[in-house]
Amino acid sequence: xxxxxxxxxxxxxxxxxxxxxxxxxxxxxxxxxxxxxxxxxxxxxxxxxxxxxxxxxxxxxxxxxxxxxxxxxxxxxxxxxxxxxxxxxxxxxxxxxxxxxxxxxxxxxxxxxxxxxxxxxxxxxxxxxxxxxxxxxxxxxxxxxxxxxxxxxxxxxxxxxxxxxxxxx
Length: 169
Fold this sequence. Notes:
There is one protein chain. About 20% of the residues lie in helices and about 40% in strands. The protein has a single domain, classed as Protein Transport Mog1p, Chain A (3-Layer(aba) Sandwich). The protein is an alpha+beta fold and about 170 residues long. The longest helix is centred in the C-terminal third of the chain and has 21 residues. Strands 5-6-7-8-4-3-2-1-9 form a nine-stranded antiparallel beta sheet, sandwiched between helices. The N terminus is likely disordered.
């Protein structure tokens, strides 16, 4: 992903591939994990995809020292706008649950790919915040990818609201 994250991740898988999450009919296996005192990250990929060239990615991020999902969501949007002022984004808040979702499309300066992301931030039981991320990336035929994102975006947002990432084996 272009935004946020712990220091540059190594391309080496550092995870137990038996740990999986399910989302949108896909099973994604743990491909990388990292942590520092502020953030714990686990990234999941479908079978056959690699960290350096993925098309679908899910992650679970935990922020043990933070307790406000809206602050994290605002920080994400602010970072996005600094890195890529032309990136479209939206934010949805659920005052009943305290959850905040951010979705956006972004791309690197060389336009070598385009990426759609959904982040769902929620208070964690016992304190802290947990974020679930689902991302799609296209390296070729970017106009077709973008054209199909409007209905796909709505479908994936609804899926993230209703089920989110489901941990499994």
